[in-house]
Design a protein that fits this description.
single chain; 54 residues; 3 helices; binds zinc ion
Amino acid sequence: MSPIRVIDYVVIHELAHLEERNHSKKCWNKVKIMLPDYEQYKEWLKENKHLLDI
Ligand SMILES: [Zn+2]
């Protein structure tokens, strides 16, 4: 579990939002195409969000 991959996930997530302005299945599908194992990063962020509060 590398934090670098979490950053990838955040960037890819934002890229997906350029085309999909919501969290529809279509949006998550775009994320999944670019980062097939995105779900573990999504979970990690949910659990460690407080670490990123700056
Ligand atoms: Zn989002």
